[in-house]
Amino acid sequence: MKAVKSYVAYSADKPLEPYQLDRREPEANDVEIKILYCGVCHSDIHTVRNEWGGTMYPVVPGHEIVGKVTRVGNEVSRFKIGDTVGVGCFVDSCGHCKNCKEDNEQYCENGHSQTYNSYLQDRKTITYGGYSTHIVVTEKFVLNVSDKLPLEKVAPLLCAGITTYSPLKHWNVKAGDKLGVVGLGGLGHMAVKIGASMGAEVTVLSRSKSKEKDAQQLGAHHFEITTDKSTMERLANSFDFIIDTVSAQHDYNDYLALLNTNGVMIILGVPPTPSDVQAFQLIGGRRSLVGSLVGGIKETQEMLDYCAEHNITSDVEMINIDQINEAFERTLAGDVHYRFVIDMASLK
Ligand code: NAP
Ligand code: ZN
């Protein structure tokens, strides 16, 4: 056991605070990583505030991790001390079910081990995430990160990047397709960048007029305000794909109505409360309502390599760890441009 510094939530209604965490000594297949940067995902907030239920306190969030290898177990072959690496939303899976064998560990039939607020495959050991100075992860779930890009801007790719890349690839979004992105936050801004890089004609669908200029700089071709009824009427039947990244309750029917015949609406955001869907919105245009969860390890590596090749990173606002509670509040207020990233050197 090695004691490391971290930030923790003890309950849903208390601010995060410093915490000493025990990490395991690296076993044969383990990589120990000194964390340089960790992104702040809205899932961290949902979990800390127990909005989805099932939060196991104390919880140390964080699943957008970039760092340097500090120690390796004696059977580790892909990494050595000093390598730059990443860890995303999960740190293990059963390895033998159909989905794991097909590199879709995120859909492990026996339950994958998430990076925090989850159990390792022994089903006993609770996981603690990246708001900490070090993490120990089995080699297979560690990603190679290119030193070519600024690392603090790479960290959010480990969740926001792969969560948007994976469905864009799966549904084969391509040049000429009309893509709507609902919500311009962490996931949304990556959907804009990656979607545009794949050749799609991207429209940001936002509540926040103040984000219009940014949307264009991120690569969006159009920007529309969703709170305006006449705009929503004008946009009816105009998208081949919609990526919905909204974190709070909203009406899916309003956005389904914007899809073309055969259009696909991809749910990425996870509002804590369920939404009603009108059958007419689906049958009227043979539309599909689908969802997608992050992406497998192989695809995450593919995404990191793709982003390095296409010079795609996240737009980040750096914070020290003692600003984390303020960052949560600003994220909840939609005031994030477009991902908070913690400089872990500030955790002393
Ligand atoms: P975020 O940075 O807070 O962005 C969410 C955006 O949604 C906001 O910036 C805002 O954009 C819009 N929004 C927020 N509240 C809204 C409301 N009441 N009505 C309409 N729009 C609203 O969050 P994030 O980190 O991108 O995460 C987004 C969601 O995806 C969260 O629920 C998170 O848990 C989930 N998630 C899912 C996966 C997955 O694998 N599927 C992975 C990671 C995260 P505008 O100001 O532009 O309207
Ligand atoms: Zn996330």
List strands and helices in order, with pairings:
Layout: E1 2-8, E2 17-23, E3 30-39, H1 42-48, E4 65-72, E5 84-87, E6 90-92, H2 98-101, E7 113-114, E8 134-138, E9 143-144, H3 151-154, H4 160-170, E10 178-182, H5 186-197, E11 201-206, H6 212-218, E12 222-225, H7 229-234, E13 239-244, H8 252-256, E14 259-267, H9 279-283, E15 288-291, H10 297-310, E16 316-319, H11 324-332, E17 339-343
Parallel strand pairs: 10-11, 10-13, 11-12, 13-14, 14-15, 16-17
Antiparallel strand pairs: 1-2, 3-4, 3-8, 3-17, 4-5, 5-9, 6-7
Helix pairs in contact: 4-5, 4-10
Output the radius of gyration.
20 Å
- Percent helix, as a range, is 10-25%
Q: What structural class do you assign from the helix and strand content?
A: alpha/beta
Q: Give the termini distance in whole angstroms.
A: 19 Å
State the major sheet: 7 strands, mixed
Low-confidence stretches: none
Describe it for me?
The chain is α/β, with parallel strands linked by helices and 348 residues long. Helix content is 24%, strand content 26%. The chain has helices spanning 42-48, 98-101, 151-154, 160-170, 186-197, 212-218, 229-234, 252-256, 279-283, 297-310, 324-332, and strands at residues 2-8, 17-23, 30-39, 65-72, 84-87, 90-92, 113-114, 134-138, 143-144, 178-182, 201-206, 222-225, 239-244, 259-267, 288-291, 316-319, 339-343. Helix 6 (212-218) links the parallel strand 11 and strand 12 (222-225). Helix 4 (160-170) packs across helix 5 (186-197) and helix 4 (160-170) packs across helix 10 (297-310). The radius of gyration is 20 Å and the shape is globular. The two termini are 19 Å apart. The model has no long low-confidence stretch (mean pLDDT 98). It binds NADP nicotinamide-adenine-dinucleotide phosphate (NAP) and zinc ion. NADP nicotinamide-adenine-dinucleotide phosphate (NAP) binds next to helix 1 and helix 5.
